[in-house]
Amino acid sequence: MSFVLDTSSILTYLTGKKGSSLIEELLDKAILKEASLYINYLAVSELYYLVGSELEMSKANEVIATIRRWPVKLIEVNESIALAAGRLMIKKLLSIQDAISIATAIDKKASLITSNPKLVNVYGDVILIGESPKDQ
């Protein structure tokens, strides 16, 4: 089992929102080598920005330090992922982060874990976590 965590799923976990238990379960499985977890570096950058701008830089540094301790593989955006993301941006009118997350999932033959309901109809292997828009 392979999974890509996007920025929204990581924030869901870090804030303890609805759906965070699935991420915790996957982290436990990754420790036991029962699952492979991936996060792309663009998601790391977005997390750093969001936490640093909404809270403070020291909190952003703590979040990155926490992720580095997780049993995940950090994925660089290579040419294959970049071009697949570009195609997704053209065809599906996605943001670059959403397109990179889906392209990473395609590249790793993985399920995408997200709290963004818009991505369910874009990629066939999406696991939606968190609150639906009407719950927020």
Structure summarized in a few sentences:
This protein is α/β, with parallel strands linked by helices and 136 residues long. It has helices spanning 7-14, 20-31, 41-54, 57-69, 79-92, 96-108; strands at 2-5, 36-40, 73-75, 111-114, 126-128.
Tell me about this structure.
This protein has 136 residues and is of the alpha/beta class. Strands 3-2-1-4-5 form a 5-stranded parallel sheet. It contains 6 helices and 5 strands; from the N terminus they run E-H-H-E-H-H-E-H-H-E-E. Helix 1 (7-14) packs across helix 2 and helix 3 runs antiparallel to helix 4 (57-69). The protein has one domain (2-130): 5'-nuclease (Rossmann fold, 3-Layer(aba) Sandwich), CATH 3.40.50. Helices cover 54% and strands 14% of the residues. It has helices at residues 7-14, 20-31, 41-54, 57-69, 79-92, 96-108; strands at residues 2-5, 36-40, 73-75, 111-114, 126-128.
N-end to C-end Cα span? 30 Å
How many structural domains in the coordinates? 1
Helix content: 40-55%
Q: For this structure, what is the CATH class?
A: Alpha Beta
Give me the CATH superfamily. Answer: 5'-nuclease
The helix/strand class is alpha/beta
Question: Main beta sheet, described?
Answer: 5 strands, parallel
The largest beta-sheet arranges its strands as 3-2-1-4-5
Sum up the structure in keywords:
54% helix; alpha/beta; Rossmann fold; 136 residues
Topology:
Layout: E1 2-5, H1 7-14, H2 20-31, E2 36-40, H3 41-54, H4 57-69, E3 73-75, H5 79-92, H6 96-108, E4 111-114, E5 126-128
Parallel strand pairs: 1-2, 1-4, 2-3, 4-5
Helix pairs in contact: 1-2, 3-4, 5-6
